[in-house]
Amino acid sequence: MDILGFFFGGFPIFIGLIFILVFGLIIFAIVKNISQWNKNNNSPKLSVPAQVVAKRSDTRGGSGNSSASTSYYATFQVESGDRIELHVSGQEYGMLAEDDLGVLTFQGTRFLSFERRS
Question: What residue intervals traverse the membrane (predicted)?
Answer without folding.
Answer: 6-31
